[in-house]
Amino acid sequence: MSDLDQLTQSLARNLKRWRGERGFTLDALAARAGVSRGMIIQIEQARTNPSVGTTVKLADALGVSIATLLDYEQGTPVRLVPESQAVRMWSTGAGSSTTLLIGTDARGLLELWSWRLMPGESSASDPHPEGTVELLHVTAGELTLVVDGTPYAVPAGGSASFEAHHLHAYRNDGPDPVEVTMAVSIPPVR
Q1: Which of 46, 60, 122, 129 is the most exposed place for a label (fewest CB within 10 A)?
Q2: Positive or negative, the Cα torsion across 88, 36, 186, 177?
Q3: Residue whose C-alpha is closest to residue 44's, from 72, 24, 60, 63
Q4: Where are the beta strands (DSSP E) in the chain?
Q5: Edge-to-edge strands of the sheet including 97-104?
Q6: pLDDT for 54-71, tens place per residue?
Q7: What count of Cα atoms within 13 Å lies in the side-chain half-sphere of residue 26?
Q8: What is the pTM of this model?
């Protein structure tokens, strides 16, 4: 079984599990997440591999991390995630990518990401739930962080934090690859 097949199977199993634990019907989850009922059915039956945006919307609506939806081992006091188990969420032919390094559901959701954006590339994000905060640190290049349409330059060595319930995007307007480490804190579902 390929890595993609394993990811699709894990997502199907965990989406169904967490929807059941939350007591959400298909229609209730669809309304909360802004994802069609048909798409949720296809994901739960492992018939499709959804976009990163759809996966994020479902995780947010369920109040779990993407790591939880993707079947990371849970329950031990220390959890080690070898590089081989980090989850590449998207990549482009030019070499841009994001990788979910690790996440937790303790006292709200907390995720750690590694991003790489090649020159001229960008990634836009839908707003996250109210109270979500993103922290980022640029280790190479210069990131253009766009929040509610306003661009902010974050050079190598610089850091930024922002309330991620606003529309936001990450761009590389420069000539060199941008590398970013990002933490995302999402409050628990109420």
Answers
A1: 122
A2: positive
A3: 24
A4: 87-91, 97-104, 109-117, 122-125, 133-140, 142-147, 150-155, 159-163, 168-171, 178-186
A5: 87-91, 97-104, 109-117, 178-186, 133-140, 159-163
A6: 998 999 899 888 877 876
A7: 10
A8: 0.56
